[in-house]
Amino acid sequence: MADQALLLQALRSFAAAMKRSYDVTEMCYELCDRTVEVLSATGAGVSVVDETEVLRFVTATDERILSIEEIQESSQTGPCVTAYQTRQ
What we know:
two-stranded antiparallel ribbon, alpha+beta
């Protein structure tokens, strides 16, 4: 269950960042960190879709998540790929 106060704080932070110049890579790191914090998750990763509509790994909170993200990217299977393909 998401911590509602932390979620609101994270959304405010991202909304404020959208008003100014920001580094996309830094925002991806921030997204991972905030996801772990808000959801009390053990880790998080970020992937984006490239110009050929293939999901590509960007960043992760730790080596364990990095390994999982790399496997999903190379095989194009797993929960992140499924979520992207089904939009759920």
